[in-house]
Amino acid sequence: MEKANHGEESPVGGEDIGAKRFADFELTGKVFVVTGGANKLGLGLAEALVEAGGKVYCIGQTPGPVRKEWRHAQERVVPEGGGSLHYRPHDPSEPDQLQQLIKAIAEESGRLDGLVAAEAYEENELDTPYRARLTVDFTGVVQACTAAAQEMMTRQTRGTIVLVAHLSSMVASRAPLAAVLGSLNAALVQLARDLATRWSPIHPGGGGGGIRVNCLSPGNILMGQTAFEKEPYLKEHWARENAMGRLADISEFKSAVLFLSSKASSFMTGSNLVIDGGRKQQ
Fold first, then answer.
1. Which of 30, 125, 231, 240 has the most CB atoms less than 10 A away?
2. Rounded to 5 degrees, what are φ and ψ at 116?
3. What positions belong to coiled-coil segments (predicted)?
4. What is the value of pTM for the model shown?
């Protein structure tokens, strides 16, 4: 497999394996966009890419820089590591704005190596109207993927796209809006498969392609008490549902997104990585 101008290189062929520890996870010099990255899971995933040396642009609907958790994330950035964290606001009522933002980021940086689409986790409101969920959690993901892939293909970058879904795509639940959220997350898993089939093949003669598309499906996550104010029983109920008997912490998904966004997963596309604390085993 020939090497690309940017992005991932072939994992075989004369490389000095072992010369640098965890070199396959190295993201120094690479540029990423994380949608839904103003706070919570999206921001946590963005931090993982920064820690590996990536230049990461978080796109969010809420004013991320004014939030305490965003300021703390920026304070944790170690400049010597080569990574950096940036923010761009996005209004989901403006359908063309997201594409323009991603295009501007790629032009400003001269490249785009990856996208993490985590829109569904920017706000964890159980009573969010289903129409808003459709607009943000699916339509927004499709727009982000299309815009990112266009920039990667234009620059012949063999990049990565990670769609963040949820375990509800595979198991039933009695939680509020479960039917809507489960169906939407199942759609994201299928979207990753379809986009991988379309974008992962490398076009002959330097025509682009080689974009790996995968899905990350977390189990239930502890993201503050506000998610349980209206349905307090859910916290204990969800904890009992999995083999570990507890909810996940956001930090427990950082290594997964780094794996999917780096050379470490170079032969993986169209897959759904499930991290659920053993929920499916129950």
1. 30
2. -120, 115
3. none
4. 0.87
